[in-house]
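Follow-up to my earlier ticket, as requested here are the two runs.
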Amino acid sequence: MNLVVRYGAFALISTLINFSAQEATVQILPGHPLMLSIFVGTIAGFVVKYVLDKKWIFFDDYTSHRSEARKVSLYGLFSVLTTVIFWSFEVAFWTLWGTTFAKYAGGALGLAIGYVSKYALDRRFVFRSERA
């Protein structure tokens, strides 16, 4: 259960960082396309989530540059795949209801679905530790 709590907390932290970066982008660059804010938020959330997952979910140690590059690449690939879920929900909710609340509600739902899928992929293919 401790793993579920940590993973959920890290997903929440990453989501809050994602949304904060999105809002900061909108405030700093008003009038820019919606996708720019989503992209900036996604990058910010990715970096935080990778570091937290590596250290506190999968207890993965650094072994070599090559191994780390492989892990980051796979983690990134799976992030892109699951980000499609997140973006689809966020854009769909924005399109349907046209409000900031709807945009973030869709994003939160999409992120939740994406994080569950991503954990399974990361555990199986990225951080292949018996402890995870």
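Run two:
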Amino acid sequence: MGRLTFIIGGARSGKSHYAEKLAKESGKKVSYLATSIPFDEGMKNRIQKHRESRPKEWITIEKYRDFDKILESKEYEETDIFLLDCITVMINNLMFYSNLDFDNCTVEQVEDLEKEIIQQIEKLLALSEYKDMIIVSNEVGMGLVPTYKMGNYYRDIVGRVNQRIALKADEVFFLISGFPMKLK
């Protein structure tokens, strides 16, 4: 059975650095699940810096959905620990590419989208059944309430997904200014 570690915190709190530190210290073969999409120059630059900061021997898998396909891959066999960075970017991509008009859609449509997102989360968590996994996410419920509908839906969905992952996790760390606090 794999061990699931969940790392959560605010923007620039040191989550990614801490997750990478844990993965490195494990001494295990790491696959890094990168959920970002290089949609502009700023994001391309950020992705490049993340790549350069990771050890060269780590396998990088760029994916934000359909994680069940990894179960049948060569990468799954060659991996001891998966590190996913990050859930909030993954959910952002799933919401954006749903093509839902969040200003005019029904609550039922948003609920259906959330069910699809939960299905993707369950596919991701299936990787941790036999392999160790570290998952990074942002805590989005401690800031301002978004003034637009998509932002409200996003915050609520991320909050519920974070709770789901934390409940299933063996360990949960909350990062503040680079310092981890163990919650579970």
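The only thing I checked on run two: Strands lie at 4-9, 30-34, 59-62, 81-85, 132-138, 171-176, 179-182. Let me know what else you need.
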